[in-house]
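Subject: Interface between my chains keeps coming out wrong

I've been trying for a while to get a sensible model of this assembly. When I model each chain on its own everything looks fine, but I need the whole thing in one frame so I can look at the contacts. Pasting all components below, labels as-is. Any help appreciated, I'm running out of ideas.
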Amino acid sequence: MIDLHYWPTPNGWKISIMLEECGLPYRFVPVNIGKGAQFSDDFLAISPNNRMPALVDRAPEGGGAPVAVFESGAILLYLAEKTGCFLSAELRERYQTLQWLMWQMGGLGPMAGQNGHFLLYAPEKIPYAIDRYGQEVDRLYGVLNAQLARTGAYVAGPDYGIADMAIFPWVRTHKAQQVDLQKFPQVQRWYDTLFQRPAVRRGLDLGKELRAPALTDEARKALFGQTAQSVQQGEHKSV
Ligand SMILES: N[C@@H](CCC(=O)N[C@@H](CS)C(=O)NCC(=O)O)C(=O)O
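Reply #2:
Try treating it as a single job with all components included. I did that and got this:
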């Protein structure tokens, strides 16, 4: 059995979608990041970066002790290797997928995260930050659009895979990111295709009733203002 430590956010959806696509049985363990659950000792033991998602596989290949994995890109890889699904074994195809997975992890995810922060959560509107991240997100959508025009199908080629599952949840937030998908017809085409997949819908639905309509003061306190000192001294342990 797999334990999925999760909260319904874009990085969490990557893994709920993958688990649903693979049909693997799993148990959903909520990590309420708005209440500081990411700082509990039990969670930090499997995810020392105090971020979700994280996964514990209690029945790993070859047996032995449970395997714990944090970072959504590493978890997608782990599940692809465990199941043999959504990542080709052929060298060129495999690295097509891996490079787009890394593009999401190092580019689209962090940039869209900062874009969303300065648009939605920053206590004051800082035009330079909004322009800086908005422009980079716009550039990344352009790169994605051009790639999807080249493949005519999925991000890494003719087959759907873990790169699509990593990128889709962030594109799901395009409205909040103030990205107009009409500017990116290939992204729109791909987005609509993925959105029709029943497993994608089930993945997006996991824990949706837990999503808070707005950022509360308590959540702001748990999520923002973390420093090297505060995380080492357990200052955010509110639950
Ligand atoms: N690179 C990480 C990012 C994970 C991440 O940022 N998760 C957010 C929610 S989307 C989180 O757990 N935030 C808790 C916090 O900021 O303390 C991954 O892809 O797994």
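Reply #3:
Confirming on my end. The longest strand covers residues 2-6.
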